[in-house]
Amino acid sequence: MRALILLLDGCGVGELPDAAKYSDEGSSTIPNIAEAYKELKLPTLQSLGLGNIADIKHIAPSPSSLASYGKLREISPGKDSITGHWELMGSILDKPFPVFLEGVPDEMIKRFEKAINRKVLGGYPCSGTVIIEQLGEEHLKTGYPIVYTSADSVFQIACHKDVVPLQELYRM
Question: How far apart are CA 13 and CA 22, in angstroms?
Fold first, then answer.
C-alpha cells in the first residue's frame, strides 16, 4: 500500500478550539482568501474533496472526490507547523515547543551571528512579508540575513538569493 500525503502548510480551513490562546480567532486561510478574491479557482483541490470539508465560496463540494480527504485537529499542545507535521506522522507531543513571544533571545542571536560570521537584522516577532518590507533594503545593502519569528517556536531566516546564495543559506 502507498500513501501520498499532500500538506499545504498555512492553508487552513477553520480555527482550532484553542485559537483564542494564540490570537488566531477567525483563522481560516482558504475560506478567507476565497471571500476576498472573487476569482479563486482551485480545480485540483476541489476534485480531491476540498469543498467537502469546509464551506468555501467558489469551491463546490465534489460528489465523487478523487481522493480520501479530511480536516484534522491537533491533539498536541502548541501552535507551530512543526508540531502539526510531527503529529501527522504519529508523534504526539506532551508539551509545546518553547515559543519566542518576545522575539529571538539575544543569546541565540549572538550564537547564530558567531556561527555564520556576520551580523543579522531583526530578531523580533513579525510576519515574513512585513519584516522583509521593513528590513529588505537594509539587507540588500549590508548582506546581513534577516531573522525573525512569527511568535511561535520557529527561528526563521530570510535572505535575497542574489545577496546570500542558496547554498550558503542552507549552511546557516
Answer: 17
Q: How far is CA 20 from the centre of its chain?
A: 18
Residue 146, domain extent = 106-171
Asked whether 20 and 27 are in contact (CB, 8 A), the reply is: no
Which residue shows C-alpha cell 548582506?
143
Task: Say if strands 146-149 and 156-158 run parallel, antiparallel, or are unpaired.
Answer: antiparallel
What is residue 79's predicted lDDT score, i.e. its pLDDT?
Answer: 75
**pLDDT of 73:** 86
Query: What CATH number does residue 139 fall under?
Result: 3.30.70.1250
Contact residues for 75 (Cβ-Cβ < 8 A; gap 6+): 87, 92
| 3 state DSSP class of 132 | helix
- Which has the higher per-residue pLDDT, 151 or 105? 105
The C-alpha atoms of residue 89 and residue 5 are separated, in whole angstroms, by 10
- How many domains would you assign to the chain? 2
